[in-house]
Amino acid sequence: MLTHVLRGLQHRCPGCGAAPLYRRYLKPVARCAACGETFAHLRADDFPPYLTILIVGHLIVPLILLAEQHGASTAFQIALWLPITLALTLALLPRCKGAVIGLMWSLGAAAGERR
Ligand SMILES: [Zn+2]
User: In the prediction, which pLDDT does 98 show?
Assistant: First the structure.
């Protein structure tokens, strides 16, 4: 299971790890180019954004509080934390989604919400 999650974290197919998991930023491929595994039925929904917010919040908020204690100006903090928060969020979101897809794949998640 950990191997599949780690492959997802690296944007690779959780099954074989040989082909990319995404065809665009957050859009998974319908079928793995290397092993043929399908991913269209695996819907991560809101869990990856939740994980991303949890991680980024736990990294950034203590640093903001620390800067506040040391008297950093509001303008400086906005100029510092906004780009860092945005960059971290954009970097972590596809990794969290890949990890969730890898976890769902390894647990054999069914296509219960197909429409
Ligand atoms: Zn594959």
Answer: 95
Residue 42 pLDDT? 86
Compute the distance from residue 9 Cα to the ligand 1 centre, in Å. Answer: 14
pLDDT at 39: 85
- Distance in Å, CA 39 to ligand 1 centroid: 10
Listed residue (37, 33, 46) closest to 100, CA to CA: 46
Q: For the chain, which residues score pLDDT lower than 70? A: 110-115
Give the Å distance between the CA of 31 and the centre of ligand 1: 8
Query: Whole-angstrom Cα distance, residue 46 to residue 20?
Result: 22
CA 115 / ligand 1 centre spacing (Å): 25
Q: From ligand 1's centre to the CA of 44, what distance in Å? A: 18
